[in-house]
Specification:
Belongs to the FMN-dependent alpha-hydroxy acid dehydrogenase family. This is Alpha-hydroxy-acid oxidizing protein. Its cofactor is FMN. Helices cover 48% and strands 11% of the residues. It is an alpha/beta fold. Helix 16 links the parallel strand 9 and strand 10. Helix 2 runs antiparallel to helix 18. The chain starts with a helix and ends with a strand.
Amino acid sequence: SSVYRAGALGTRPWVPVAPVRLERAARRAMSRRAWAYVAGSAGTEATAAANRAAFDRWHLVPRVLRDVATRDLSTEVLGRHRDTPLVLAPMGAMGLVRGDADVAVARAAAAAGVPYVASTQASAPMEETARAVDGAEWWFQLYWSKDDELVTSLVRRAEAAGASALVVTLDTHVLGWRARDLDLGHLPFARGEGIAQYTSDPVFVDLVRRRAAAAVASGPRPRPTPAALATLASIARRHPGRSFAERLRSPLPRAAVETFLDVFSRSDLTWDHLAWLRERTRLPIVLKGIQHADDAERALDAGVDGVVVSNHGGRQVDGAVGALDALPAVVARVDGRVPVLFDSGVRGGADVAKALALGADLVGLGRPWAYGLAVGGSEGVDEVLRNVLAELDLTMALVGVRTVRDLRDDDVLVPATGR
Ligand code: FNR
């Protein structure tokens, strides 16, 4: 209510509250490349639109005279009491948006009582962001590398640095068709913006050293891998004047990027591989990118501790089902056996309320926090989070529920077509 009161009393917020204005301000604050990368989705961006449209298909039904003078946003998920039902969706390459991105974001998340999720593609090593949250909860998001030793090393580091869950993202074993990035000749990871977890990893550094040594030994023109060559070629085709390789003239950074492109992920993973990971960590494992009830069932069979219904903000499969449309079937199938998290398309507190009412246990906020970061750094993220939570609190009050649980149990959501 303090957020609302400040607004009503004429204190104008410097980070826009309205999602559309926040987006506009962020666009102004970002480079073209950063904007394309963050705002862009796959192909025609139909999935991103479907994510929003899915929210419009559900209507909240306000109930009155139910004594909602005190509300409680807290919840218990993955064995922990939490002050809020929010989590920060992991976003990589945020160094594109702002230099100190990850540390600033981690700090803001901790201050708002929302878990920070360090991406494998972060622009700062997880040990740094772990220090920034200063004892508050954070999770590590894993992209499953082709190199087993590297996977093991990343997981060990997450454990040692104090992560309390492992989010394994399954929907991005290859990068989607990101038309906006392609038009700018921009692949952020290939330019090194999202490889800090790798370059701070002893296993990765060893791979790079070996590659760089081999490159030096083979003469002045090191031979890149086929994957690196394909990337370089596509960038060169689009921007004949700007040689990407120029930035990577010395063998070491070049070898780092090539090694990254080589080991980033594997497309041959199957459900059987989860047993391998399960054996290697005691951290709760949460699978991100589940969109089919049968996959949720298999996740449970594999002994995971949670699933995230998400389509990566529409950045992977163009023309895919809106994430919120996929949520009810997964919730029904999981039937309370493990937590079901949700992200993709959440822009405000009322969206969070709808996802919770449809059975999500925690809701991930994605792009809006990146926009807050662009506009106002750590304080910008903090403000965005507080606005979302304030709107959620007001929405709960106005629909007549006191707790997150009641949003689901009480009859406050109907399909937009009526009943
Ligand atoms: C992402 N997302 C993502 N997910 C993940 O598991 N690891 C990552 O490194 C990233 N990186 C990333 C970068 C950017 C710029 C975006 C927009 C998204 C996906 C993210 O966690 C989440 O699923 C989406 O952001 C949700 O969609 P909305 O709500 O942001 O549209």
